[in-house]
Design brief:
Layout lengths: L1 E5 L4 H13 L4 E6 L19 E5 L5 H10 L4 E4 L6 H6 L1 H22 L7 E7 L23 H20 L3 E6 L1 E3 L8 H10 L4 E4 L5 E6 H14 L4 E5 L4 E3 H16 L8 E4 L15 H5 L8 H14 L1 H7 L2 H16 L1
Parallel strand pairs: 1-2, 1-4, 2-3, 4-5, 5-6, 6-10, 7-9, 8-12
Antiparallel strand pairs: 9-11
The structure holds nicotinamide-adenine-dinucleotide (NAD) and thymidine-5'-diphospho-beta-D-xylose.
The site of thymidine-5'-diphospho-beta-D-xylose has 16 residues, from helix 6 and strand 8.
Length: 349
Amino acid sequence: MRIWVTGGAGFIGNHLVRHLVRNYPQDHIIVVDALTYAGNLANLSDVAEAPNYTFYKADIADATAMEALWQTHPPDAILHLAAESHVDRSILSPRHFVHTNVLGTITLLELARGLWKDRSDVVFYQVSTDEVYGSLSDEGFFEEGTPYDPRSPYSASKAAADHFVRAYGHTYGLPYLISNCGNNYGPYQFPEKLIPLTILNLMQRKPIPIYGRGENVRDWIYVEDHVRAIDRLLRAGRRGHTYLIGAENPRRNIDVVSRLCQLYDEITGSQDSLSLITFVTDRPGHDYRYAIKPSPHLLELGWRPQVSFDEGLRQTIRWYLDNPDWIAAVQTGEYRHYYEMQYGSRLRG
Ligand code: NAD
Ligand code: TDX
């Protein structure tokens, strides 16, 4: 099978690509990635020489480039991960999110509609998020059939893309799959997201910003567990179905950050990391709580999360401690500029 992985140089993408390249030598994995600030070829350096791996740098919203790639490497499956993925950036600059998440997705769907005509042995797999379901109160879960209620520019753009994928399935018969997953964490995550940002600030002994009172809840999953679920669904998931992926691990932000501080002190011998926690002005429109009931069919297919939260956090902390060069390469001028815009006045109070 020839598989395109869009966004393969990003956080989840690089884990997925490594998993596919190593476990399926008979498949050819073609990464399509624009290498934005979040995409990094260094993330894929250990598969760069693999015979079943090809990298192609392009914007998925560029129809000409996508068509040219289709001519040389026509796919049997598209695992679509390329996206602008950070909620805070979507609040600063929503238009970029429409470009990649909506127009980029439609560009790929249009090609698939024309070039996969009458093929039922192919699949367009849309990797999406639990944020499309909105915000829960203290009770309840997102489950299959929960209506979409996106509330940030990021989640609105992902919801729009999901709806287009389903519309192409319904209208043109495109074989598709969608999965909506909770908050991923693990090695290679860009340090704008809560867990890597906390770890870097611990390493650099900088204040750790927590929005509001830290009472918002996110449902966390180790990235490799998400990758195994995507692989399982690609091979055995029902076409035309929308799956929820989650490790049943909802936690308050303050508890996540406090645990990271404790584990960091245990691993490094540092002291008093908890004192770095700093409550700052809340994110506008901050969704209160996410919690996922994983799809029954995914569990019937034998998928279970394998990495406990403590173990995943330990592995993640160790990875950042062991990779100072990776950290230096991503903490560029662009990153410092973003950090100042996002946190400068909040942390100065
Ligand atoms: P990421 O920001 O780390 O990586 C995104 C990748 O997409 C980067 O490599 C970037 O270069 C590439 N990209 C961006 N715009 C592009 C364009 N126009 N053309 C081609 N490539 C482009 O994101 P991630 O955290 O790895 O998320 C991957 C996918 O999974 C996204 O679709 C996201 O919505 C979804 N998702 C993420 C999470 C999470 O917790 N990170 C949870 C659920 C779903
Ligand atoms: O500095 C911070 N302080 C803070 O309190 C940051 C960056 C975040 N937070 C809070 C906001 C959220 O409640 O931590 C929680 C997690 O924030 P993020 O890591 O930014 O993730 P979130 O907004 O929940 O979205 C993530 O999960 C779903 C990913 O970024 C999305 O791509 C994914 O779809």
